[in-house]
Structures are given as C-alpha cells and as structure tokens.
Amino acid sequence: MIDAMALPQKFCLTLLLTCFLAKTSYALVLGQPVIQSTKEQLLYMEVPYSEATNIKSIRVNIEDDDEISKLGINSKDMGFVVRKNGANFGIIVVTSNKPIRSPRINFVLKVTESDMPYLKRINIPFKVSGTNTTTDPHNEEKTLSPIALNTNENKVASKNTDPDNVNSVNVDHSNDVKFIYRVKPQDTLWSISAKIATQTGEKLDDIAKKIKADNPTAFTRQNMNHIKSGVRINIWGPEQIKEVLQKSTMIPVANKATERNDQLSEDIQKELLQTKARIRALEHEISRLQREMKQRNAKFDVINGKINDLRQQIKQLNEKNARS
C-alpha cells in the first residue's frame, strides 16, 4: 500500500480519494512497474494495469514535474503509451527521449480513467548494466533486458567476461542483410531492439537509434520512441533475426478472437449511435414540416373564410339587383 505521508501534500487528498474508491467500487488497478533499460540509457518501463472499465479514456502523466527534473530531464521528454492486451487489462509503457543518469526512478505516475485519477509512486533502481542475463526468445516481452546476450547463440559474448567489454562488443556487419518487417500491435521499439540484441550482442540503445535513423517516418510525432503499429520498417542484421522476429510476434488465436469481438462490438455501437442520430434528425424534420403545414392550413382557413364572405356579399347584391 502506498504511504500517503511520503507523497507531496498537494496530491495527498487525491490519493486518499482514489484509495477509498478502489475499496468501494470497481476501480483501475496499477501493478508493479518493471524497468527494462539501464542507467545512462533512454528509459523504457512497463506498468501493468487491470480492472479497467474504459481503456480508451486512460490518460497518463507525471504528477510532479519537479521530481522529473531531478532525474536530469523534463516532463516534455517523457512519453506514455497505453497498450491493450485484453478486455480490461494491458500495459502502460513509459519512455524518455533523453538518457536518465540517475541511479533510480522516483516519481509519482498519474493515470486518469474516465476523469478519475489514480496515483502510483514509482521508486525503483535501474537494472545493473553489467548483469549478463539470457533472454528467452519465446517470452522476450516479459524478460526484456537491454544488454541481454544469448551465450548459447553468440560466441563473441561468451568470450568476453568483462561487463564493460560486453557492452562494447564489436560486431561484424559484413554479412548483414536487409529485410522488411511489419510492426505488430504488441511491438515496441525496445522489444524489437532486444530481439535483435540477442542475436548480435550489440547494445540495445545503439540498435534502437539505428532503427530510428533508418525508419524516421515509422514513429509518432508526440513520442519518437513510439513506433506505429502496422508500418513496415527496414531492418539490417543476420539472416536469423528475421526468423526470431516472426516467431516472437505470433499472437494466440484467443487474443485475436477477443480483439476481433471487441472491434466488432465497437463498430456495432458506432452504427447504432449513427442510426439513432439519423432517426432524431428525421423526427425533428417531420415535426418542423408538421408545424409549417398547420400554419399553412390556418392561413387557408382564413382565406376560405374571406372568400365565403365575399360570395355572400355578391349573392346579396345579386338579389337586390333582381328585385329592382
């Protein structure tokens, strides 16, 4: 449980209100954050969420800009992406456009869903860059490590026992090939870079920069670390990288069916709303025409009354003329 006394006074009231609502109603739940980058690199952190009622309304920001400035960057350098993994759960990706030199992350993340704020104090250290971690190619989103080297597949890394030398492995690019890769919905710049790093032994930061340089139009303007889903990007590397990327981006059929059902439900709701709007517009038009018709009928009644009066006067005049 978050200690409210450790938080700045200006948002303690919001925190208490959030905790109260979380106990008494169906509220958004923020899980344990995981940093997948190291110190001196661009930040990449994932915060899982669940029990969401309206994922499209989720907005993410930093509660206190002063805490971000202590990390050597400002709030404009931060980027946030809300990824949907199911009907009411997913991952919030937090990135930075500048390297963070602080040894740990310490700030309050503010997540708003349907105008209801939720606060999450994040105070965790970066991963140690010298740690030699092996990445499972079938589950790299969960065990993503910026400098993870697969010692079974990379002989260069296994020969180098010095952590500093591991980070600066000289890779022979003479046999690299170029191929086109279509970005999947669950892909991120860092996850793609990590999969390439398991095959080449290069630094994750260097691979990410190269992908951005080779594909400048594949990223959003709001966050240059957020790669667009569905775009085709150019990748340079060993032949086996293509196979690793294709295998690791397969989506379970159940998830695809859920996404299709969610999309179908959203499309049906949009059509229903559009149909209701058209019906209301037609009803207003019918009411307007009926009012105009009543007004015209009233005018016709007045005119008919005047005509009848004139006919009566003509009849009386004719009778007088006949008698005379």
From TrEMBL:
<dbReference type="Pfam" id="PF25800">
    <property type="entry name" value="FimV_N"/>
</dbReference>
<feature type="domain" description="LysM">
    <location>
        <begin position="179"/>
        <end position="235"/>
    </location>
</feature>
<dbReference type="InterPro" id="IPR018392">
    <property type="entry name" value="LysM"/>
</dbReference>
<dbReference type="InterPro" id="IPR036779">
    <property type="entry name" value="LysM_dom_sf"/>
</dbReference>
<protein>
    <recommendedName>
        <fullName>LysM domain-containing protein</fullName>
    </recommendedName>
</protein>
<feature type="coiled-coil region">
    <location>
        <begin position="254"/>
        <end position="320"/>
    </location>
</feature>
<keyword id="KW-0175">Coiled coil</keyword>
<dbReference type="InterPro" id="IPR057840">
    <property type="entry name" value="FimV_N"/>
</dbReference>
